[in-house]
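Example record

Each entry pairs one chain with its bound ligand, flavin mononucleotide.
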Amino acid sequence: MKRIVVGVSGASGMPLAVTLLNALACAAGVETHLIVSGAAEKVLSLESGLSVQKLTELADVCHDVDNIGAAPASGSWRHSGMIICPCSMSTLGAVANGIGSNLIHRAADVTLKERKPLILVPRETPLSRVHLRNMLAAQEAGATIMPPCPGFYSRPETIQDILNHLAGRMLDHLEIEHELCRRWDGMPSADA
Ligand SMILES: Cc1cc2nc3c(=O)[nH]c(=O)nc-3n(C[C@H](O)[C@H](O)[C@H](O)COP(=O)(O)O)c2cc1C
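Structure tokens for the complex follow.
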């Protein structure tokens, strides 16, 4: 059984968080632990019209972002990896600098120190030098930086196609089987 911690912070991209949580809920042998920041609750209602309760229904366990004593705050609690999707520049800065002031930041810090996979899905545009430095620092500390940049080689027809492709790549990095998107199988050669 894989136990995955999902942090949702207050950047734009809530439909992606919903797609990711749905995919994790459908994946066999996965237990999700969800932490939602206060800002994320606001952005969620604005971008998707969903209440935080609807989001929490997609997870197996939910932890209060202010409960710094919850299980994911400890390195002795075992899990298989953490993803922060979307990851605000504020949360990115906290993770890059080891500031464990809420449960998302602390759980990410623990994930790095325990050398488990940590995936950050940062969303902002354009990026300042501070954002870029923080991404580099987080990557050097062991995180995988996965900005939600769509690929068009799969010829997406809907926004949901794009979200599925992005979420599928995240599940790949967590080593979770899925059928969210078609895999690139190479281009036919010119003389085929
Ligand atoms: C509608 C809305 C959209 C936002 N989009 C972004 C964004 O794309 N990226 C970002 O870094 N911050 C964004 N913010 C600002 C963050 O929510 C804010 O910095 C917040 O303090 C982040 O807190 P958190 O990281 O604890 O969730 C947005 C705020 C709102 C209200």
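Residues 2-173 form a domain with the Rossmann fold fold (CATH 3.40.50.1950).
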